[in-house]
From TrEMBL:
Residues 344-357 have a biased composition (Acidic residues). The keyword ATP-binding applies. NCBIfam families: Cob-chelat-sub. Residues 344-455 are annotated as: Disordered. Residues 416-428 have a biased composition (Basic and acidic residues). CDD domains: vWA_Magnesium_chelatase (cd01451). Residues 404-415 have a biased composition (Low complexity). The keyword ATP-binding applies. The lineage of its organism: Bacteria, Bacillati, Actinomycetota, Actinomycetes, Streptosporangiales. Residues 358-386 have a biased composition (Gly residues). This is Mg-protoporphyrin IX chelatase. Keywords: ATP-binding, Nucleotide-binding. It comes from Streptosporangium jomthongense. Residues 511-683 form the VWFA domain.
């Protein structure tokens, strides 16, 4: 049995890679990384229930087994051991062969678990400074899989991607200085509905793939058929696909051995540079990744020279997520434009290979006969193009911004024929809003909080099991009692009462709930355009600070929760752009709905503190001002900023009066771009 065959020997009832129906682009992206790990990993974006995790977990069975130094915790290769391995130096001796590992990084992992840390047990009991490896060491020469990577803490994502790019993990903490090799195939999956990765983090993934469930009935039926068969008898199902798995594993191993022989002609290199420049990607990482992926694709199809088709397949996977100019832009690539650029690239007269003429059927060979798949969608997701949705706004003489809604209204959106949708002004850059006091919510970038990941501010006696041991304070607490406890060796004699926990302070993400007046009065004098632009700026700020957002609107006789609290700020931007205006102003209903939303969210996530942003002119034409003030009293304990939208020379000051009743600070709409410490100043009153 060959090593490739040994790799796919049925060891556990894992769903076979070749049994996956569809998702050809994802399969191709994973295989290109398996052929050449230098491509830089794969980010899998897709809706829930699209077998993202199943495909990734199935990949590990196709990777060739690895030979490691016996007893080495860092998986050194016996043929070329790492000279700086913490377990080295290694003597020349036969190694042991084991399957490639699939290591999963949970969302709640700590930095110590990921990178490794001082072995506290040995340090305290034996007085020895020893290093305890983390998940990066376990994943060396294997696959590191991060499910829901967009929910992973930012500092962990930075550490993870740095190690993946350098192929080395550096640990400098608690008196430990360690470097070890960490070369792995990085795969992350995410559901965009739960929030996006920052563009600079997206850029660190080599390839990206959008996964959507097939709309073809026959294909969906086949997915269910195979899944039910697998659940009925996993071992038998896996055995029935074993021959295909072996064949694919053999091909991966052969392509990996062939990569070094593939040449990248100047004509193909110019094609890559032309495409990356035309699509205006930042930096040169896109060019490098596209070149590596094109070389891997050529090796995968069995060629020895990169062709135009190799470049096209590589660019389709390497460029979509690098074209975002705004956090609300959706990744995408215009494939017609890509083909046009490749056709226009001048050929190298001295190059014998024509980059446009690849071998017949070569690049199309995928795990099941071809990568296939539909083209990646252009950047036309919510807010993706930056264009406003033409729509509707109240039919008032002073308003000429929108067009009326269809006669009879729209049942899906709740609009009526009298509604209009205003276009949004460009998003304004908002200054920082914070919640007063010291919170304890999820790590983020908005308000001060006691978090397990911030800077160490001191030590404290833990209430239960220490979340993060403060080594120095623990030693200082135990040191005076060593003689009395009969210590006679190098280690400390510890008791539970000696343990001290590190007190840390960082920043938390908050729940930013927008409550927006969408009544007819907001449409006058182009006011709603300015309001939407200002709120888009606040949404952008919430995106950068890792907040959850929600959107309540009120108009006519009711208030609606247009966007339940979510981490998908992009969804908030899309709902805001499509927001219709019209009707009377039920201010009290809007405040009552906001109070109810916050009450429910407090039960769901009690540690996440809310920040309420009320956008109104203070008028209440449906109900009375007194009713609105009574409703405002229910929100008196919530950190609130009232954005006063009243315009004109004569001002009634209704929004300012409402803010006083709520204990909030009133800010004029025109001043939203200059809000230094608006809410932060409320700490003194807290």
């Amino acid at each position: 049995m060959t090593r490739a065959e040994e790799a796919v020997k049925v060891r556990d009832p894992r769903y076979p890679f070749t049994a996956i129906v569809g998702s050809e682009d994802l399969k191709l992206a994973l295989i290109l990384n398996a052929v050449s790990p230098g491509v830089g990993g794969v980010l899998v974006r897709g809706e829930k229930g699209t077998a993202k995790s199943t495909i990734v977990r199935a990949l590990a069975a196709l990777l060739p087994p690895v030979e490691v130094v016996r007893g080495c915790r860092f998986s050194c290769d016996p043929a070329a051991p790492d000279p700086g391995c913490p377990d080295g130096p290694h003597e020349a001796a036969p190694g042991t062969v084991r399957p490639a590992r699939l290591v999963e990084l949970p969302v709640g992992a700590s930095e110590d678990r990921l990178a490794g840390s001082l072995d506290l047990e040995r340090a305290l009991t034996e007085g020895v400074k020893a290093f305890e490896p983390g998940l990066l060491a376990d994943a060396h020469r294997g696959v590191l899989y991060v499910d829901e990577v967009n929910l992973l803490h930012d500092h962990l994502v930075d550490l993870l991607l740095d190690a993946a790019a350098l192929g080395t993990c550096y640990v400098e903490r608690e008196g430990v200085s360690v470097r070890h090799a960490a070369r792995f195939l990085l795969v992350g999956t995410m559901n965009p509905e739960e929030g996006e990765l920052r563009p600079q983090l997206l850029d660190r993934f080599g390839l990206t793939v959008e996964v959507r469930a097939s709309r073809e009935v026959s294909q969906r039926a086949e997915v269910v058929r195979r899944r039910l068969a697998f659940e009925a008898d996993p071992v038998a199902f896996a055995a029935s696909w074993q021959a295909r798995e072996r064949e694919l594993a053999t091909r991966v191993a052969e392509a990996r051995a062939r990569v070094a022989e593939v040449t990248l002609p100047d004509s193909a290199l110019r094609s890559i540079a032309t495409v990356c420049a035309a699509f205006e990607v930042d930096g040169l990482r896109a060019d490098l990744v596209t070149a590596r992926a094109a070389i891997a694709h050529a090796a995968w199809r069995g060629g020895t020279t990169v062709t135009a088709e190799d470049v096209r397949e590589a660019a389709r996977l390497a460029l979509p997520h690098r074209r975002r100019r705004d956090p609300f832009d959706a990744p995408g690539l215009d494939e017609a434009r890509l083909d046009e650029l490749l056709d226009q690239t001048p050929e190298d007269p001295e190059e014998p290979d024509d980059p446009g003429d690849g071998p017949e059927g070569g690049p199309g060979d995928g795990p099941e006969g071809g990568p296939g798949g539909g083209p990646d969608s252009p950047g036309s997701g919510p807010g993706g193009s930056g264009e406003d949705v033409p729509g509707t706004e109240p039919a008032e003489p002073a308003n000429r911004e929108g067009v009326p809604a269809p006669a009879g209204g729209d049942a899906a959106t709740g609009r009526t024929g009298d509604d209009r949708v205003a276009e949004a002004d460009p998003a304004r850059r908002a200054r920082l809003f914070t919640v007063p006091g010291l919170g304890a919510g999820a790590p983020g970038r908005r308000s001060r909080a006691a978090t397990p990941l911030g800077r160490v501010t001191g030590a404290r006696v833990p209430g239960g099991r220490p979340a993060s041991l403060h080594l120095r304070a623990t030693v200082e607490a135990a040191a005076p009692y060593q003689v009395g406890r009969g210590r006679n060796g190098p280690g400390l004699l510890l008791r539970r009462e000696d343990l001290r926990e590190a007190a840390r302070e960082g920043r938390e993400g908050n729940l930013v709930l927008f409550v927006v007046d969408a009544s007819g009065s907001m449409a006058a004098r182009r006011r709603m355009r300015a309001v939407k632009g200002a709120v888009l700026g606040l949404l952008l700020d919430a995106y950068q600070r890792r907040d959850k957002v929600g959107l309540v609107t009120f108009r006519g006789t009711r208030a609606d929760l247009v966007l339940p609290p979510t981490s998908s700020v992009e969804a908030g931007a899309a709902r805001l752009r499509e927001l219709p205006t019209g009707g009377r102003t039920p201010l009290a209903a809007g405040l009552l709905r906001a109070a109810e939303v916050l009450r429910v969210e407090r039960l769901r996530d009690p540690s996440r503190r809310p920040l309420l942003v009320l956008v109104t002119d203070g008028r209440a034409t449906s109900g009375t001002v007194e009713e609105a003030h009574r409703a405002a009293a229910l929100l008196a304990g919530v950190a609130t900023v009232v954005v006063d939208c009243e315009t004109g020379h004569i001002r009634l000051g209704l929004a300012a009066s409402l803010a006083r009743r709520m204990g909030a600070r009133a800010v004029r709409l025109d001043d939203l771009t200059d809000l230094a410490g608006v809410v932060r100043d409320r700490r003194a009153a807290a």
